[in-house]
Structure formats: C-alpha cells, structure tokens
Amino acid sequence: MTGEPSWASLREEALHRHQRNFRRVLDACAYPGTVVRLEVDARPQARAAAPAMLGEALFEAVSLLVDQATTFCVVDAAYAEATSFIAGETHARPCDAPDADFLVVTSRACSNVARRAVLGARAGDLLAPERGASVIVDCEYVRSFGQSLVRRSALAGARSSKPPADLCRVEVRGPGVDGANRFVVDRVDWALARAERADEFPCGIDVLLVDRDGFAVMVPRTSALALADGKAA
Amino acid sequence: MQQRYNFAFFDEASKREIRRAVLKGVCIPGYQVPFASREMPIGRGWGTGGLQITLSLIGRDDVLKVIDQGADDSVNAVNIKKLVCDTTDVDVTDDTARATLIQSRHRIPEQPLTSKQILVLQVPTPEPLRSFEPSEAATRVLHAEADYTGAWLELFDQIVAYDTTVTGADHPVMVNGRYVMAPSPIPRFDNLKLDQAENLTLFGAGREKKIYAVPPHTSVRPLDFEDYPFVRERFEGVRCALCGAEGVFFDELEDEATGEVRYQCNDTAFCAARRAQQREGDAAPDGAALGPAPDAALDSAPEDAPGEEPGEEAGAREVV
C-alpha cells in the first residue's frame, strides 16, 4: 500500500473543487468586475500533464464548463498541443473560432491573434442569444482595484505574482454592479476587440479573465467598460 | 448521505450543462435559456426546475432553506429538503439569515436577502406571453423582437373589465429594460423585491425546460400604465395574530365556526423568529423587530429614472 490517494478520492476532491469554483465564477458573473479566486489542482502530476501554455487556473476554468456537449477553440500561435490536451481531458470538440462555444485565449496569444479571435467569436442571434460565445482569457495578472472589492470567495494567504509594470484599470458598470466595480489587468486586447465588435444586446460575448494565480473576473455582455491609465478613457 | 448517488444526485456532466445555462441566464437578464431538464425523483411541476438549479449549485459548505408558499414545513418543501440532504448532507435551516441557498415556491422571504445568498425560485410557467400565444416558436420571435404588445394588451383588457389589473401573482416584469419576464407566481407584494436586489435570483422551470435569472442590482419593473400604476397587495391596519407584525404579506384565515377573519404572516420562519424574540423578552416594537417595516415606497413601482430607457444603461458611458 502506498500513501497515494485513490482514484475515487481524487474524483471526489475534483467534484467539490469544481463546485466551489463554479460558485466563484457565478459570483463573478453576478457581480461583474469583482475578483474571485479559483482553486487549482495542486498535485504535481496534474501540472506535469498539462502543456506549458495552459496555466493551471486557465485549465481549471475550462474544465468547469467545457465538456462533450460543447465546442471550443484555442487561440494561440501554437494551438495544436493545447487543443489536443483539452479535447482529451474534456471530450469537447475543437472547431474554428466563429463556431466555438468557448474561446480559450492563452497568455501566449499575441494581441493581434487574440483580437482577431474575439472579433470573430459567435455573438448568438436574437432568437438564441445564449449561443454567444464564452471567451476565457489567460492573463498574467488580474486583481481587484483595492482589496475591499475582493469578494468572499477569494482565498487568503496563497502565493501571489508580482504585478507587471504595465497594468490597466478597468471600470465596470451595468447589471450586477452597484455603481462601479474596478479591477486591474495586464492585457486589454480582449476589451478593445469587444468594443470593436459593438454587439447589440442581447447578442454578444461573455468574457472570463483568469490569471496564473487563479484570480478571475467576469465581464458579461451586459457590462459597460471604461479603461483608464492611458489605454483609453 | 446515500452514497448510491453522486454528490447532489446529478452526474457531473448534467451539473455542467445546468451551470452553463445558469451562467448564460445571468449574462442575459430575464432571457429564458433552454436546458435539458432531467428526470427527477419528484414529479414535473413539483419544483424540479428549482431543484435542478439547487443541486447543480450546492456544495458541502452551503446551508439550505426551502420554502413553499412561505412555509418551511409544507409537503413540497420538506420533500425537496429531504432529497437534497439525502444526496449532499448539507445543513438545512429555517433561518433566512443563516441560509446561503434558498429555494422557494411562490414567495420571496420577508427578510431582505444579502449578496452572500442565492434565491432559487420554482417556476411553473416561465413564458409571460403564453396566455395569448400558445406557440413556443412564436413567443421566441416575440421576445427576439421585443414585441410585448400582447402582454400590455392583456393588462389593458383587465383594466377595461375590472378597472384594475387582476394579476394576483406572476405579474409580468420588464428586466433590465429588455425582456418581459414571468417572476414566477410570487404575489405582487414580492415583485418589487427583485428590483435592485442585493442577491442573485435564479428561476428554474423543469417542465418547460427553461432557466432564467435576475442578477443583483438590476432594474426589474412591473408592467403598468402611467394612469394605472402597479400596486401591490395592501394590508392597511392588518397585524399578524401570532406575532403582531405589520407591513408583511399575510395569509387570511377564517374561523368556520364563528366566521371571524384573522391574519398571520405568510412567511412562517419570519413569524416564528419574531415570536421567539418576543418570548425572550427583548422584542422590538411591533412590526419593526426583525423584518422590514412597512415601506410606503414599495407600495407602487418606482418612477422611471431619467435615462433608463431600454439600452441606455449599457450605453451611458464610453463603452470599451
């Protein structure tokens, strides 16, 4: 006998982790612009199995929602390995960006590639706006603008990255927001592309930003964004 | 917990499908998202939609409260709690403030909910246009085109016939200035609690296979006319015969022997908590101890704020 956990206990652990993470994502969706923190599978084996461009937190977000009933597209200069890994783990069907239920934008995807993918993402139509794509974006750094905005589901005391020098503050207004919520993020290509799309509600895309430490924030299609710190105002 | 089942009864793929629908529902407030409603060990029409949402959301740390028509101990509520407990082992409570997940049939609790709570409402008929348009395909087009003439005409017909709207419950509401939504058969008294609420409200219709949502801090306005504004049920001068509360939603009870009419709080947990507090001897003045004081501002729909026409909310700032 070894001290290794059994398959059943690992499955049980994953089940409850997914439940907790889903509730955090639901919180993030209901209160757009507030930052939550996702738990990740901390086992070294889990980390070793995933391709380098797929962060643990990004894959955790993907595996929460993507499965055999959905389609996905990895947006990355070298997407084959990540696509194969996600398809293998979730049994979801890879497809082109305009047909995908989920767009997975890795941190390696340059601004141009990410922009083109977000511009081409499915918006749904008036009869079925729920078919608008969900875009999951891997970021280097996502944090609330002021710790008071971190919701209850944020975990305290875990490892935390140093903030990159070039951060942009994003202000969110709309349903789910009492006044305005603010967060900071290292990339805004998704936001610029979202603005360029100019979707008319109820059609549109819903964006989930996840960073390497598991911090996540959601921007549903109902949210109005304003960028600060020189990027746009 | 009965280990014969997966945690929370459903397999993980079913939970994921329901979770995806819930998220899309929150992203499109008031829009009915179709989902693959599962067979449940309770009959369709007995809260399977709400139950499916609850089971896909619930975790080991949750505290569950289930109410049916305001009562924690009615048949529907008891059986739903039993099923959820048998498959999850979560704590259940009657105390609204302690609950993290509240499943309800036909009422929103008297005690205001917070951002740490999720309300799940069971919905028998999610389509507010169904009474005049039987075709699902046609109502989808009407929603797509925001053509709600029929909903307005229905209220107009009631006013012509009765000089008032006669929607006892399920009075249609406009959510975020875009979708007309059935708020489930909550009394009109509860309709305004959805407007700019602190909590997320989810609606599940198992038989009709629809999930929809009202996010927190979202505009929810009952349909009404300028000259016939929305009015909720009035209970002026009425007090609960058990706890003395005023300004809450009451059940009217008639003594068959004497014909005497008396009123009791419809929200049994609210009433019981007040009575417990009174027994402890430190009850606050009647009507103010635990629940909302009578709020005249809630008696009718708030006036439309300038600039809150459909679509303006999202476009008020520079959009990025």
Walk me through the structure:
The complex is a heterodimer of chains A (233) and B (320). Chain A has 233 residues and is α/β, with parallel strands linked by helices. Chain A has one domain (7-227): Bacterial phosphonate metabolism protein PhnH (Rossmann fold), CATH 3.40.50.11310. Chain A is 30% helix and 21% strand. Chain A contains six helices and eleven strands. Chain A has helices at residues 7-30, 44-49, 56-65, 80-90, 111-120, 189-197; strands spanning 36-37, 71-75, 93-94, 102-105, 134-139, 142-144, 168-173, 181-185, 206-211, 215-219, 224-227. In chain A, strands 1-10-9-5-4-2-3 form a seven-stranded mixed β-sheet. Chain A has a four-stranded antiparallel β-sheet with strand order 6-8-7-11, with no helix packed on it. In chain A, helix 1 crosses helix 3 and helix 5 (111-120) runs parallel beside helix 6. The termini of chain A are far apart. Chain B has 320 residues and is α/β, with parallel strands linked by helices. Chain B folds into two domains: 12-126 and 180-218, Rossmann fold, CATH 3.40.50.11310; 231-301, no CATH class. Helices cover 26% and strands 16% of the residues of chain B. Chain B contains eight helices and twelve strands. In chain B, the strands form three sheets. Chain B has a seven-stranded mixed β-sheet with strand order 1-9-8-5-4-2-3. In chain B, a hairpin with a 6-residue loop joins strand 11 (250-254) and strand 12. The longest helix of chain B is centred in the first third of the chain and has 16 residues, at 12-27. Chain B is globular, with a radius of gyration of 20 Å. The termini of chain B are far apart. Mean pLDDT of chain B is 89; it is low at 285-297 and 305-320. The chains are: A alpha/beta (233), B alpha/beta (320). Chains A and B meet through helix 1, strand 7, helix 6 and strand 11 of A and helix 1, strand 1, helix 4 and helix 8 of B.
